[in-house]
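idk why but the lab printer keeps eating my pages so im just putting this in chat instead. protein + cytidine-5'-triphosphate:
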Amino acid sequence: MNNSLNGKHIVLGISGGIAAYKSAFLLRLLVKKGAEVQVVITPNGKEFITPATLAALSGKPVVSEFFAANTGEWHSHVDLGLWADLMIVAPATASTIGKMANGIADNMLITTYLSAKEQVIVAPAMDLDMWAHPSTRRNVETLKKDGVIIVEPQSGFLASGLTGKGRMEEPEAIVEAAETYFEEIERCNRDLKGRRIVISAGPTYENIDPVRFIGNYSSGKMGFALANECYRRGADVTVVAGPVDRTLTLDAGIRRIDVVSATEMLEAMKEEFAISDIAVMAAAVADYTPAEPLDRKIKREHTDDLVLRLVKNPDIAAELGKEKGERLLIGFALETDNEFENALGKMKRKNLDMIVLNSLRDKGAGMMTDTNKVTIFTSDGKERRYPLKSKKEVASDIADAISTLLVR
Ligand code: CTP
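predcted complex ->
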């Protein structure tokens, strides 16, 4: 079996709670799985479990003070932070969580946390009322926002007789959280590493006059979710964005080219595809554009009825399809009827390797939603149907499908 903890450097931070005795079991499990573990304990933690036990289990002296008592040697939290592939704080008391959330660096555990370059997992342990307190809730939320993984504590009975949470999760569950984290990293680093991908997203706006346009309801959510997913899997990603929802964000490291019209999008996509391995057309491109866009605002008194003549826009996917060679080209199809037939027809006509179909007949699918329900067709004749999921999860399914095309 693949063991994702083998050879990993883990800093185990222990703070002062009854659950500290469980940390010895946690430490033993981590070591058994092949991890190298350095224990950092708070002064209070030592009241609950002896450094001697922890040193024996980890095979390393336990770090607690900024200076080693006997030699006066300076313990470098910065070095520890750099050494660690993962830091686990278990148990994390209300006080330790509060200090972590607010950067109160008055012990070695907190300074190490502030220097940690990689993921941190926190297993809280405290009295149930303390866990429920708004102050703790705020601090836990802050840690989550800072990217910390919280292993939710277990339930127990409050003094009032009601149930609440607070008991530290079992060591096995904490180990599982660590394993899941490393597996995710491995998965993400694996399949799209070294690939250059360009993704179009959002609507296009076609100007009628300087203040009016023809557009559509596309938000760009699906394209942005896919861009972030591909980037996290190691791809080099460029997004060609139409006028998307302003609240959408891309991971730092993703290039973004903003365009407005279909013609601008075509230019940008052509240029990027020439230096990419994969192009994904997630944008909802306007099929028609005003034949004679005006430089001046159309005045209402000019005429009683106004006829706008539209001309066809270029089909960007089809244009890229003509020149794709060995590269991969992926399209989307948003349909209201004859979904499968239309999607397969588009894949063929535009010379795509894969098409992601979403039907407007499915509730929660398509534009302006946070969810989507898709069927993915690939040019090798395979068809994958998925249930309704968040766009982030759909992005992961699409990336999986892209990755199978790459190894073909
Ligand atoms: N597409 C494109 N350029 C266009 C229109 C669409 O590149 N001018 C791309 C879309 O980004 C999508 C795929 O083609 O990946 C299918 O888009 P869709 O609007 O469903 O299909 P159309 O070809 O426009 O067909 P129709 O509107 O008739 O359904």
